[in-house]
Amino acid sequence: MGDPASPLAFLIYISDFNTTPHADDVILNGVPVSHLEHADDVVLFSTSEAGLQSKLDDLAAWASLNQMQVNLQKTVIMAFPRPYARTQLQKPQLYLYGQVLTISQKQAYVGVTFSTESSNLWDAHIRLCEKRARLAANKILFIESHVGSLPPWEGRLLYRSQIDPHLTWACEVTGCGTLKQLDRIEDVQHYFLRRLLGLQSRSQLCVLFSELDISPLRFRRLELQLRYTQHLLSLPADHLARCALDQAVVNARSRAHSWYAQLRSTCTARELQLSDAPTEVEIEDALSNLSDRVRQYVATAINSSAKLDLLQARRDFSTGRPRPVPVMQFRPYLRIASTELRHAVTRLLLSEHSLSVERLRWRDGRPYDIPREARLCRFCRTAVEEPLHCLFHCRSSQDLCTARKAFWSSLTRKLPSHWSLPDLRNLDAEDLFHLLLSVPTTVDILAALCARVMNIYETHPRFIPSLDDIADLSEDS
Question: Secretion signal: which residues (predicted)?
Answer without folding.
Answer: none
